[in-house]
Amino acid sequence: MRAIGLTEFGGPEVLRVIELPDPAPGAGEVRVRVRAASVNPTDTMLRAGAARSWFNGRPGPYVPGMDAAGVVDAIGPDTDTSLRPGDPVVAIVDAYGPHGGAYAELIVAPVESVVPIPSGADFAAASTLLMNALTARVALDLLAVPAGGIVAVTGAAGAFGGYAVQLARSDGLRVLADASAADAKLVMSLGADEVVPRGDDVADRVRALAPDGVDAVLDGAALHELILPAIRDGGGLAVVRRWAGPVDRGVQLHPVLVTEAVTDHARLLRLRDQASTGELTLRVADVLPAAQAAQAHRRLAEGGVRGRLVLDFTAF
């Protein structure tokens, strides 16, 4: 099979089309023929070698990607599932695991990590769902803010941020979000109750709307110490970039590691259902042939992408 991989860590130029053996699904696993794979910031971290220790010494080539949409190609032995070959599905994969990531014509994943494609979604749109929405879901569950509480979302125009806004609203929370002037309308359309301008004084702007402080922050923009003053004493801060503080005033720090939840089938099914009903909005910025993965990584690094860039594995 063809995949997009790397044999050395570095910039986007290290990504290339490589040939790999077709993977075989084992017990409890499903093989998916990939039609589309979305490009996420975590993919660029893998490519750059920022978390190379996660490979536990396994040699390359390495294949990035956590999000895929396609059709079931084969089901491993002793696998309890209602899925059948040919079923359209979405999957979330651990790119640091033994099977590699989603940038490949064929992927193998635990059956718990594979769910039917959202109703009415094409493969490109469906591939943008699971990793970012699951990250937001895990963050909200860690924060455990009761219905009626107030949360702030930074980076609300991004994929994680957009899902965080929508899921928080679905949980019955009041949502304050930061955005540039150009993105304010988008963020409001996703369900934010109030939008404040981005900037170093964002915590002051949030406090102007919530004088006692918000119950929690989902920090998609990795503002860290800049957003900390917006949180009430004893509140929570969910971080997605491994920031370790310091925090004060009893604020609880919640690192979010989505790889720990990739086999949480019930959560994945719920997200799929919410996307099917339109409760979650699937946003595609552009679709590129798979061989243009390096270009996609460059565009992501340049910033300003709204929605996700998607690699088309039916076109190299």
Q: What's the topology here?
A:
Elements: E1 2-5, E2 16-19, E3 29-39, H1 41-48, E4 67-75, E5 88-92, E6 106-110, E7 114-116, H2 123-126, H3 130-143, E8 150-154, H4 159-170, E9 174-179, H5 184-189, E10 194-197, H6 202-209, E11 214-219, E12 231-239, E13 252-255, H7 265-276, E14 284-289, H8 293-302, E15 308-312
Parallel strand pairs: 8-9, 8-11, 9-10, 11-12, 12-13, 14-15
Antiparallel strand pairs: 1-2, 3-4, 3-6, 3-15, 4-5, 5-7
Helix pairs in contact: 3-4, 3-7
Task: Indicate the percent of residues in helices.
Answer: 10-25%
Provide the number of structural domains: 2
Main β-sheet description: 7 strands, mixed
Average pLDDT number? 97
Give me the CATH superfamily of the largest domain: Medium-chain alcohol dehydrogenases, catalytic domain
In CATH, the architecture of the largest domain is Alpha-Beta Complex
pLDDT under 50 segments (min length 5)?
none
Q: Determine Rg (CA atoms, Å).
A: 19 Å
The end-to-end span amounts to: 12 Å
Following the backbone from N to C, one meets helices and strands in this order, namely EEEHEEEEHHEHEHEHEEEHEHE
Please count the beta strands (DSSP E, at least 2 residues each).
15
The coarse silhouette is globular
**Fold-level CATH name of the largest domain:** Quinone Oxidoreductase, Chain A, domain 1
CATH class of the largest domain: Alpha Beta
Structural class: alpha/beta
Name the beta content range. 25-35%
Continuous helix count: 8
